[in-house]
Amino acid sequence: MVNAGAMDILLVGAAIDPWTRALDSAGTMAALAKTFKQLGHGVSVVVPYSEEYEAGGLLVARRLSPLTLADGRQATVFDAPLSSGARLTLLGLPGQVQLGFASTDPALQLSATVAFGEAVAALISERMSQGLPLDVVHAFDWPASLVPLLVVEPEGALRPTCVISVSEPEVAPVFARELWLAALPAALKADTRVVSGAANSVLRGALIASDAVVAPSPGQGAAWSDVAQTGELASTFAGLARPVVGVLGGVDYARVNPAVDPALPSRFDAEAPQNKQVCRAAFLRQLGVSLEARPVMLYLGPLTRAAGAERLLETAHELVRGGALVAVATGRRDEPELAQRFTELASELSGDLVLFSAPDEPARHRACAAADIVLLPSRLAAAGGLQWVAQRYGAAPVALATGALADGISDADSALVTGTGFLYDDDSSQGLLAAAQRARAAVVSPSWPAFRRRFMKLDLGWDGPARRTLQVYRQCVRS
Hints:
Mean pLDDT: 90
Strand content: 15-25%
Largest sheet: 10 strands, mixed
Shape: globular
Structural class: alpha/beta
Number of helices: 18
Number of strands: 18
Helix content: 25-40%
């Protein structure tokens, strides 16, 4: 594709789908890289190295020359092609620092953030010195938060436009002043955008230094100026030169499509949904429960309070009493206490509430293809785009009206003439139960097939979100 307005774009984050998913932004980066490339732009992606990439079949080539960080340590550089045509660079950070983004140790988290930021800045500088300019550097979430601060104006060229996407600012690490100052590169120690007060959010400086800040939804970005939402970062959001831009995501139809998905026992689509029953039967046999006709409610985790799992615990008895089968996915991100309580509940409600493992995308797709309803009581406003996967596979989302969930789902009316799911704004067990009961009644309504067809046919692709993101870039690019 020839594009007279083509840009050279660098996407930087903690991980990229489908090999590893350290944050929800891994899926966003993969989708944007693919769509930008299809639209005729030059695209490169930089993430920290992980053995998961090679274990997942990615062919990587190690460069002979490493990158040297400010303290003399070195970062190894690996290159790999993506099927989209974008270029992927993996940065092997020094020693234990490589493990920092997955750690709960503040010192290790900070060391990883600093080393990754320095390595990316060195990579950009190297590229620019070779006459390979960049128009945009787009950082994703807190692991890449130092990149906008460390990208410098190269000699004889303009500094690339820097954009940062933030999914959940309230979960970004905050470091004590002493630890923060000890770890920061010398160039940032006196930078008041970065160092402020006794505790320092890893995001604060990046928000100020970036030319644009992108949120996962319009409503979410607007809420970040509220102290109740983002605490001390609220004043930083309120004082930005440009308002936060909310861009709803989407799904990659090459990977999220029940009409061609090889993971399913039988394929179907909005116009011919009959084989969804085959998927349902296969899933129920996997769970070891009866094939009786009853609504299948799905919760895909994680079992954490932030994801609203305790609300499901509080409503489970009422849900199964109303005739539903509740299938709950477990995984490595589960909180141990909640995982134990769900194990006990599954024993108590044997055959009505069932635990199962959904460790990867194919398993989640099979579960959504079998379900009638997907429960999303998450307080995490980004919510990983699961609502769109559910809709694509013919399962109505029941969601707490927050962030991208509120912006991306239209609440159904009682006759199912309008709407694409079921929303509730009362973060309580009563709120979840009322919305789930509405959804359960809808499943047995004569209007259900037409309602399901409508939300399965929604345009959920990445073309629109990618074009909106490119518009953000163009509004900021220096000329």
